[in-house]
């Protein structure tokens, strides 16, 4: 009876994980769509990407919490610190159960059963590459005080896919990287998570001291757990998975057919059912975001124009966003429209309804962020 319960519980865990991943991926796409077409009331992809917090960290410290680099908000810092704590407690469970880019790669992996496994040394060196990306991206962001990675960011490109050919204006490189990642993910599970993603690198380092661990008892070593692991960890030969590569997706524990629960997810050495683990991680994640939002520390959008006008607390030039029209931005900062055109060096021929990030479509070479940051 107990075995049957475990089996059923694992089946539910498997489908529940996919339902949650699908919901998060679909929800992210909807938010990105609304940001592009309904404006700054919805957060930009960069504002809700936790890694933006690391790139912003130096500017944030130097500005004593008041300064942020372009496209990053104070709420991004909350997300960044929160996901670090999450990694400390639950390992890379964010990667395995929440991250929509990880889900997208996993979905592409479903297109082919044939998988390529890089040979040991090449695989190890390639996995190390994501740490170099992390160091390089962070240094560049800290030196330039800009979101340096933005044009090369495959997830950023995916979030702007709704813009059609205008996507290539800002994200041509990111789009090419996105195509490479998705094509590679068909044959190499979670290609970016293994070799490229700097966020996964940070969470992987922190996960080394997490109390959440996959553990295996003496078993028949049938190899099923190793076969399903998307990160190609040879779980069937390891007693305790301590690898920074483990994304705590529980695919190994769910797939185990033994009647004696030979492989388990443990927390402080106490075993938990995969189903319970998935429910806990998602509840903690979204519950915390809900609380942060209610307490005002997860502000990833600018306030509504009406409330700014009512309060008389106009935004600073540095706080205006590319998703504001020229007219709305002038009102947000409390300036006459013509004065604002002059300040932002926008020719008067550009219609006032134009979003600031689209001024470049009228004026080749115009870079809204550069001009804004220099004011
Ligand atoms: S490694 Fe990066 S892309 Fe992959 S799941 Fe983690 S954060 Fe997402
Ligand atoms: S070892 Fe298990 S939990 Fe870790 S990544 Fe592989 S399948 Fe997922």
List keywords for this structure.
2 domains, 4 strands, mainly alpha, 56% helix, 18 helices, binds iron/sulfur cluster, four-stranded antiparallel β-sheet, 4% strand, 375 residues
Give the termini distance in whole angstroms: 70 Å
The chain-level mean pLDDT equals 89
Q: Tell me the fraction of residues in β-strands, as a range.
A: under 5%
* Strand neighbour order, sheet with most strands: 2-1-3-4
Q: Which stretches of 5+ consecutive residues score pLDDT under 50?
A: none
How many separate domains?
Answer: 2
> Which ligands occur here?
iron/sulfur cluster
Number of strands: 4
What does this structure look like?
This protein is 56% helix and 4% strand. The protein has 375 residues and is mainly alpha-helical. It folds into 2 domains: 1-301, no CATH class; 305-374, no CATH class. It has a 4-stranded antiparallel sheet with strand order 2-1-3-4. It is elongated and about 75 Å long. One iron/sulfur cluster (SF4) binds next to helix 5, helix 9 and helix 10.
Helix and strand layout, with pairings?
Layout: H1 2-38, H2 51-62, H3 74-90, H4 93-97, H5 100-109, H6 120-144, H7 154-159, H8 167-187, H9 191-195, H10 198-207, E1 212-216, H11 224-228, E2 240-241, H12 251-255, E3 263-267, E4 270-272, H13 274-294, H14 305-311, H15 326-332, H16 337-343, H17 359-362, H18 368-374
Antiparallel strand pairs: 1-2, 1-3, 3-4
Helix pairs in contact: 1-5, 1-13, 2-3, 2-6, 3-10, 3-13, 5-8, 6-10, 15-16
């Amino acid at each position: 009876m107990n075995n049957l319960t475990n089996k059923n519980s694992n089946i539910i865990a498997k489908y529940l994980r996919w339902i949650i991943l699908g919901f998060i991926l679909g929800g992210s796409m909807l938010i990105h769509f609304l940001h592009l077409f309904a404006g700054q009331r919805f957060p930009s992809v960069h504002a809700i990407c936790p890694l933006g917090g690391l790139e912003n960290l130096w500017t944030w410290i130097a500005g004593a919490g008041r300064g942020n680099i372009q496209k990053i908000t104070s709420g991004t810092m909350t997300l960044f610190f929160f996901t670090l704590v999450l990694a400390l407690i639950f390992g890379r469970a964010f990667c395995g159960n929440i991250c929509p880019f990880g889900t997208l790669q996993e979905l592409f992996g479903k297109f082919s059963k044939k998988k390529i496994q890089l040979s040991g040394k090449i695989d190890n060196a390639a996995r190390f590459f994501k740490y170099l990306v992390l160091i390089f991206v962070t240094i560049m962001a800290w030196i330039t005080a800009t979101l340096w990675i933005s044009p090369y960011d495959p997830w950023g490109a995916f979030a702007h896919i709704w813009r059609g050919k205008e996507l290539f204006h800002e994200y041509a490189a990111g789009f090419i990287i996105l195509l490479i990642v998705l094509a590679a993910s068909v044959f190499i599970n979670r290609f970016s998570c293994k070799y490229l993603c700097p966020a996964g690198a940070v969470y992987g380092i922190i996960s080394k001291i997490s109390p959440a661990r996959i553990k295996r008892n003496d078993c028949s070593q049938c190899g099923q757990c190793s076969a399903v692991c998307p990160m190609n960890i040879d779980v069937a030969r390891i007693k305790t998975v301590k690898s920074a590569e483990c994304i705590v997706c529980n695919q190994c524990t769910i797939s185990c057919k033994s009647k004696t629960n030979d492989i388990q997810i443990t927390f402080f050495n106490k075993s938990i059912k995969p189903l319970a683990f998935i429910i806990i991680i998602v509840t903690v994640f979204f519950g915390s975001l809900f609380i942060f939002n209610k307490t005002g520390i997860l502000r990833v959008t600018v306030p509504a124009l009406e409330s700014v006008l009512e309060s008389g607390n106009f935004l600073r030039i540095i706080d205006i966003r590319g998703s504001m029209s020229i007219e709305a931005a002038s009102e947000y900062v409390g300036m006459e429209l013509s004065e604002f055109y002059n300040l932002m060096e926008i020719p008067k021929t550009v219609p006032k309804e134009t979003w600031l990030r689209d001024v470049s479509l009228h004026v080749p070479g115009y870079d809204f962020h550069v001009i804004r940051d220099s004011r």
